[in-house]
Amino acid sequence: MANHKRSAVYPGTFDPITNGHQDLVRRAASIFDRVVIGIAANPNKAPLFTLDRRVDLARRVLADLDNVEVMGYSGLTVDFAREQGCGVVIRGLRAVSDFEFEFQLANMSRHLARDVDYVFLTPQEQFTFISSTLVREIAMLGGNVSQFVHPIVEEALKLRASFAIATGQVGG
Q: Exposed site from 40, 46, 72, 165, fewest CB < 10 Å?
């Protein structure tokens, strides 16, 4: 297993994984020996895609990165990081508005697990406005999301939107 501090977890719901997420993963993979993408089964959110589907999409999008693993998890992120032998949690900051929440989260996590550090990465400028929430909304309303997500994810969103329209799950 890689050194505790040379392995990092990048957690999130990734519903869906966007080009902004992908940018941060690729940069983290160049910094750390091992990066685990932890896709959270967050009970407080109602994701568009199932956990298994989100894991599958992320694995397919990131398949070219040898030092990146993708897996689902539930529970506390710091516990997942420890289980994976990771001493670092990576979080993305798109804008100053993200900082307050992420700072609070990192400090709370430090109280729970002093041996797990948080590292914040900012995406390239062209990705700062992309969020999974906005991508989902655009896709579900029939908009073009090709510049925001990998083609594999774009196709999955189109299929999901078609299903939602066919079953009356959109706009109601």
A: 46
Please check whether residue 8 is in contact with residue 32, taking contact to mean a CB–CB distance below 8 angstroms: yes
Residue positions annotated with a catalytic role: 21, 45, 94, 132
* pLDDT tens-place string over residues 127-149: 888 999 999 999 999 899 999 99
Q: Which two tokens stand for residue 125?
A: 């400028």
Tokens of 83: 């289980």
What is the DSSP annotation of the chain?
A: ---GGGEEEEEE--TT--HHHHHHHHHHHHHSSEEEEEEE--TTS--SS-HHHHHHHHHHHTTT-TTEEEEEE-S-HHHHHHHTT--EEEEE--SHHHHHHHHHHHHHHHHH-TT-EEEEE---GGGTT--HHHHHHHHHTT---TTTS-HHHHHHHHHHHHHHHHTT-S--
Convert the pLDDT of each residue in 69-112 to its tens digit: 999 999 999 999 999 999 999 998 887 777 878 777 787 878 88
Q: How far apart are CA 81 and CA 104, in angstroms?
A: 18
- The alpha carbon of residue 155 and the mean position of all alpha carbons in its chain are separated, in whole angstroms, by 18
